[in-house]
Amino acid sequence: MCQVYLWNYPLYIRSVPTENELQFHYMLHTSLDVVDEKISAMGKALVDQRELYLGLLYPTEDYKVYGYVTNSKVKFVMVVDSSNTALRDNEIRSMFRKLHSSYTDVMCNPFYTPGDRIQSRAFDSMVTAMMIQVC
């Protein structure tokens, strides 16, 4: 599951598998509170270190929720299966950096209107490839 938020408004939602989408949406909206808490707790340290990766926000019985926030407060949230032990923190961080880079490319597109849902084929194919790598 991958979801991109801009000021707590979903711009891009992609989930695999699709049968428990409501559960994923609940987890993602709950994780936004944790992201806000981590940002406020880190405060100035977040800006000084330029560390955008928030790490594991919280684990559930079946999933792990990770977070990332940009300097402009765009929030990226990713939910992965807890049984996937092959994913390490560095790989998750790398995936968020790729996602951030691709998001920047979407924002730099002169035909994209900020605040609209992301419908870029390049962004979607990058997310799809990333999800195939994880699953």
TrEMBL record:
It is found in: Cytoplasm, Perinuclear region; Endoplasmic reticulum; Golgi apparatus. This is Trafficking protein particle complex subunit 2-like protein. Keywords: Cytoplasm, Endoplasmic reticulum, ER-Golgi transport, Golgi apparatus, Transport. SUPFAM superfamilies: SNARE-like. One of its GO terms (cellular component) is Golgi apparatus. It comes from the Eukaryota. GO terms for biological process: endoplasmic reticulum to Golgi vesicle-mediated transport. The keyword Cytoplasm applies. Belongs to the TRAPP small subunits family. Sedlin subfamily. It holds the Pfam family Sedlin_N.
